[in-house]
Amino acid sequence: MPSTILSDNGVTSGTSGLKSTGSNDGILALQTTTAGGAATTALTIDTGQRTKFPTTIGVGDATPSTSGSGISFPATQSASSNANTLDDYEEGTWTPTLTTDGVDFTSVSYSLQNGDYTKVGNICYVRGKLRTSAVTVGSASGFVQIGGLPFTASGSENAINCAYAVNWAGEEPLNGLTQGGSTTKIYLYYRSSVDGNSQTTAVADVGTGAFANELYFSGTYTVA
After folding, report:
1. Residue-by-residue DSSP string for 24-68
2. 206 in helix, strand or coil?
3. Where along the chain do its domains lie?
4. DSSP-based three-state secondary structure for 203
5. What whole-number distance in Å separates Cα of residue 193 and Cα of residue 188?
6. Alpha carbon distances (Å) from 218 to 101, 115, 133, 161
7. Residues 107-136: pLDDT tens digits?
8. Where in the chain does DSSP place strands (E)?
9. pLDDT (tens digit per residue) in 38-91
């Protein structure tokens, strides 16, 4: 039977429990109310065992969002060992950087530097743009990378597409890979005009003047 509930100021208002409709087909409805107002249904289970939430729900002790309708996940993932469990979703921004896998550049200045991402479970989709305005190479060595990925990549290789690359000192990057174990960096590669083979971008391929290196890229990678 329906049971009486109190509003948040102690005034009796509305009912909770088993709610019967006009046609007497009972559904289970959880209701709430504020300041003596009419009861509002917060959760409904119908006769087909289908559950309906009118706004948002929080899982893993996450605070439900106060806007839109959807599922809120914790700020820090609570990973599940069950392969069929969606245990994380996140959207955000990140800042790509020009770096190496050896001795880093002495300094890099940017006129464009932004990125965004969407993470679903252990898969992260990223987009990034950067344009350098000055690069001081110094004693930099090794292969060129894009650093700053929002999540650590797993040890497996993941392809990143470089859709737009101009004004590099050497041959321009066409693609990238996350590789070499857990990392937050992307190795850059180009197709050699000499033999057509894929080559790792080296420090010598980086331009040092104003508006020297520009790169737009996107792709997905597996999160560790």
Report:
1. ---EEEEEE--TT---EEEEEE-TT--EE-SSEEE-TTPPPPSSS
2. coil
3. 3-80, 92-222
4. helix
5. 16
6. 20, 9, 22, 5
7. 999 999 999 999 999 999 999 999 999 999
8. 3-6, 12-19, 27-32, 40-45, 51-52, 56-58, 70-72, 89-94, 97-100, 107-120, 123-136, 144-147, 158-166, 175-178, 185-191, 198-200, 214-222
9. 777 888 888 888 999 999 999 998 999 999 999 999 999 988 999 999 999 999
